Amino acid sequence: MSERSPAPGGLGLVETLVNTLDLETGADSLDTGEGRARLGLTQDDVPAARELRESLRATLLAHAGHPPHRAVTPLGELLAAAPLVVAVDPADGSAALAPAGEGSLTARVAAAVAQALVAGTWSRFKACEAADCHWAYYDRSPAGRGRWCSMQVCGARAKMRRYRAKES
User: Fold this and answer.
1) Percentage of the residues of the chain whose pLDDT score is greater than 70
2) Model pLDDT, residue 79
3) Number of Cα atoms under 13 Å in the Cβ half of residue 143
4) Residue 47 has pLDDT above 90, yes or no
5) List of domains in the chain
6) Other C-beta atoms lying within 10 Å of the C-beta of residue 114
7) By the 8 A CB rule, do 96 and 87 touch?
8) φ/ψ of residue 46, rounded to 5
9) The overall pTM is greater than 0.90
């Protein structure tokens, strides 16, 4: 739904996962082989991916100051099971958390969250406040108070609803 540029760093993976479900139409790209392949998932991985997706969505709504869209497993509980290792670059000695072994989706998301925490970008990663959207987006507004994934779609709809409510 968003015309925004992708989230920085590893948050692009998280954005891709959260945005696999179009709440307005109900279309879920995890139902397709192509959609699963984008995330390196098999059909057996889909239930866990959906649980992770909705937990991430609830967290991103919290970043935007909104309550969860529904009851979900807390993100911390899901990420606690993610096997991560400290990877050190021999060239420059820099270190980062990385998925252990093959890197399950949960471990890749956990590494992306850790990277975003260190970079200071995690709290600007939000979910659109429109109840029929909740699309993930990275808030690049100067004050960090963006509300919608798209000003032209979700923002315009919200402003039109407010205008019509005043006119009634």
Assistant:
1) 87
2) 96
3) 4
4) yes
5) 10-165 (1.10.3300.10)
6) 18
7) yes
8) -60, -45
9) no
